[in-house]
Amino acid sequence: MADSISMKNGKIVPDIVVSRLPLYLRSLARLQEEGKEVTSSQELATRLGFSSAQIRKDLSHFGEFGKQGTGYNIAFLREQLKAILNLDIEWQVALVGVGDLGHALAHYGRFSQKGFRITALFDNDPAKIGMEINGVVVQSHDEMVESIKKAGIRIAILAVPVKVAQETADKLVKAGVRAILNYAPITLSVPPEVKVQNIDPIAHLQKMTYYCQR
Amino acid sequence: MADSISMKNGKIVPDIVVSRLPLYLRSLARLQEEGKEVTSSQELATRLGFSSAQIRKDLSHFGEFGKQGTGYNIAFLREQLKAILNLDIEWQVALVGVGDLGHALAHYGRFSQKGFRITALFDNDPAKIGMEINGVVVQSHDEMVESIKKAGIRIAILAVPVKVAQETADKLVKAGVRAILNYAPITLSVPPEVKVQNIDPIAHLQKMTYYCQR
DNA sequence: TAGATTGTTAATCGATTAACAATC
DNA sequence: TAGATTGTTAATCGATTAACAATC
Fold first, then answer.
1. pLDDT in tens, A111-160
2. Domains of chain B by residue range
3. Is strand C in 7 Å reach of the CB of B54?
4. CA-based nearest residue in chain B for residue A111
5. Which nucleotide, over all strands, has the C1' atom closest to the CA of A39?
6. Using CA atoms, how far apart are residues A128 and A151, in angstroms rounded to an integer?
7. Domains B4-84 and B91-203 share a fold
8. Which of A119, A123, A167, B59 is the Cys-Cys partner for A98 at CB 3.0 to 4.6 Å?
C-alpha cells in the first residue's frame, strides 16, 4: 500500500496515521455509548494504550478538532473522522468465495452496520451458484468482472483458496476494484493504486508463540 | 504487546521484526512447494514487497542462516524460523464464542495444519453447550477457567460479542492463557505478560476507504 | 578464479514523545 | 482568574536502507 497521500495544503499523511483513525473512531463510538459528550487526548490514549501526544499529532494532520482546556466534542470528532475516511456514504462490497469463512462473513452483521453492504457474492462451485444468502444471490466467477463493473463496486473481500487467490485478485483489479480485504494467506501482487489489507490469523498466532515458552 | 524480548546474547528483538517472521515462513513454504531448494534475500524480498536488506537484517537478530554467494537453504531456514517461533511443537487452543464466526473458525482447517489444535470450545448459550464440532464438545463459560487450567492451554481465540469481550478476557487471563487472538472490536486490557493480537476487518476496510474516492 | 550474496556497519529516514505557548 | 488541554515544535528514539568487506 502507498505510504501516504497528500492532505492539508499538500502535506502528506503517513499511512500508519491513517491506520489508527479507525481505532479512534471505535473508541469514540464506545465513549458516546457510555453517554459521554466530550473527551480528551489523554482519555483516548488511556483507552487505546497510545500516548496522548500521538493522538493529538495524528489528528493535527487533518485539522483542529479540539478546544484548549476542554478537549474534543465526541459527536463532532466522530463526524469529522468519518468524513476523512470517506465513511459518510455507504460502500458496496463484493465478497468472493463463499466457503465456510465467506459464509460467516456474509452473515456478519457489523459490515452493514458500519456502512459496508455486501451486495454481490461470487463462487465457482456450481453447487453454490444461485444460492441466496441474506438476500444476495451467489454468482459464478465467469460473471464476476462484468457484474462488478456494472455495479461500480470498488471494494472486495477475498475469501478464496490460496491457489486461486492471485488470479481472482487479477480479475477484481480488471473489474475496477480499488480495495481488497484479503483472507488468503498469500502476498497479492496488484498495481499501486489498489490497496490490499491482509487478514491472516495464523500469522498472528505464530507471532504470539514467539513470546510463549512451550 | 511488549516491544521486544531479549535474544542473541542479551540483544533485543524488536516486536516488528517478530511480526515479519511468520510472513517469511509463509513465503518459504510456498517456495518449497514450487520445488525450489535455495533462495536469496532478494527473491524473498520481491515476493513479499520488502527490501532485501530488511530481510537480512531481520534474520541477523537470530543468527546466521545463509551462505555468501549462495543464499539460504529453504528447508533449513524454515526449520530455524519454526524453532525461533516455538512452532516445533503443537499448541492447544481454546476457542471462546461459537457463533457464526466461531463456527467458521472451528472448521478452518489451516489452524491444525499449522500446528494449532483447537481442543476446547466454550459458549454461554445453553442451546450450544454440549454440541460437538469437529469432535470437540462445547462447554459452558462456567467451566472455562477450570477446564483451560486443567488442560494447560496457553492460547485462546476470542470470538464473543463486544459487550462480554473484556470480562471473558479477564477469565482467560485467570485461567493462565498467555496469548489471545481477539476478534471482538475492542481494545482489551490485559497484564503485560499476556499478548493480544486483534483482528478487525472493519478497521481494515475503513483504512482503505481513506484512499478510495467515493 | 569470477560472480553472487551474505551479515553488518553507518547513514538516512521517519515516527514518537516531551515540552510548552496559546487559549478556552 | 486558575486549571486544563490543545496544537505544534524540537528532541529523541527507532527502523529502514545503502553500501561493502567477507567469503562461498
1. 999 999 999 999 999 999 999 999 999 999 999 999 999 999 999 999 99
2. 4-84, 91-203
3. no
4. B202
5. D5
6. 21
7. no
8. A123
Contact A189, A198 (CB under 8 A): no
pLDDT range class, residue B2, cuts 50, 70, 90: very low
Residue type for B47, please?
Answer: R
**What CATH class is the domain B4-84?**
mainly alpha
What are the C-alpha distances in Å from B61 to residues B5, B22, B29, B78? 11, 15, 21, 16
Note whether B183 and B103 are within 8 A (CB): no
Give the DSSP H or E segment for A196.
strand A195-198
Cα–Cα dist B144/B126, whole Å: 14
Amino acid in position B191:
P
Q: SS3 for B198?
A: strand
How crowded is residue A126: how many other Cβ atoms within 10 Å of its Cβ? 8
Nucleotides of C under 7 A from a protein CB: 2-9, 14-19, 21-24
Distance D16 C1' – A10 CA (angstroms): 25
Question: How many interchain CB pairs under 8 A, A with B?
Answer: 186
Angle at B196 between CA B195 and CA B197, to 5 degrees: 130
CB A51 within 8 A of CB A45: yes
* CA separation for the pair B29, B154 (Å, rounded): 26
**Residues B11-42 as b or e (16 or more Cβ within 10 Å = b):** eebebebbbbbbbbbbbbebbeeeeeebbbbe
Residue A143 neighbours by CB under 8 Å, 6+ apart: A122
Q: Cβ distance B196 to B182 under 8 Å?
A: yes
Is the CA virtual torsion B149, B151, B152, B157 positive or negative?
Answer: negative
pLDDT in tens, B123-140: 999 999 999 999 999 999
Superfamily of A91-203 according to CATH: NAD(P)-binding Rossmann-like Domain (3.40.50.720)
- Which residue is nearest nucleotide C17, judged by alpha carbon to C1' distance? A53
Task: Please give residues of chain A from 60 to 99 whose alpha-adjacent beta carbon (CB) lies under 7 Å from any atom of strand D.
Answer: 60, 64-72
Residue with grid cell 500521538, as numbered in its chain:
A54
Residue nearest to nucleotide C4 (CA to C1'): B69
**Which amino acid is it at A203?**
A
